[in-house]
Amino acid sequence: MKKRLFSIALVAVMTVALLCSCGKQEGMTVTKGVLTMATNAYFPPYEYYEGEQIVGIDAEIAKAVADKLGLELKIEDMEFDSIITAVQTGKVDIGLAGMTVTDERKVTVNFSDTYATGIQVVIVKEDSDIKSLDDLQGKKIGVQLATTGDIYASASPEKGGYGEENVEKYNKGADAVMALKNDKVQAVIIDNEPAKNFVAANEGLRILETEYAVEDYAACINKQNEELLTEVNKALAELKADGTLQKIIDKYIPAN
Ligand code: GLN
User: Fold this and answer.
1) How many whole angstroms from 104 Cα to the centroid of ligand 1?
2) Is the pTM of this model over 0.85?
3) Domains of the chain (ranges, CATH numbers)
4) How many CB atoms lie within 10 A of CB 207?
5) pLDDT tens digits, 144-178
6) Residue whose CA lies nearest to ligand 1 atom number 8
């Protein structure tokens, strides 16, 4: 009788242990077994479409992280402006979008350890009389809505910006570049790697040598999901240590 009681107890303990280990993964993501990532897939080389598929640095890093966590990666494409809300409201697990870590964003989401550096640069027409950041005063500047380029440029001149009234906001970086080509704006402030892509794809544009801002890219995660944050940071550290991260970046950003 005692023996039987013992085995029942053992089964009970094992069941609880099993449930706990499954529950760990289960509770960690919006959909069981899946890491749902939000991005804006018009930001080469970090994320862009190759046919139907979203590829790029962020897509590959997220895939490598998901693999380490034993999760399947699902990418949802949305406006850049919607990513933080999607993470905050628990529609998705994580946002990777060449997203800059800022104090304002930290109020609503957590950020993983940084995995890349971003630089805000200025694109002008090749024959433009804009040669320096000072020359941008009073000019019409195109930006991508709600990006750091938008936030900095829209600030008052005392705060290093050019004033809200001088900034035209577009949903996609490519739309801002189109506006520059069509003389609707005289400059575009955007992250350097997409800038290089846009300049390569469009004739008659160049990037100013002076950098506007240097920043860190990281993944954003729901404030309540400390567990996922820890797991993602652990995975990123491993991917950094074994060279995978650098390999992914080098694949998309060939050394000059
Ligand atoms: N790095 C910029 C930001 O976080 C732009 C990112 C993007 O457009 N995908 O605001």
Assistant:
1) 14
2) yes
3) 32-115+218-252 (3.40.190.10), 118-215 (3.40.190.10)
4) 18
5) 999 999 999 999 999 989 999 999 999 999 999 99
6) 147
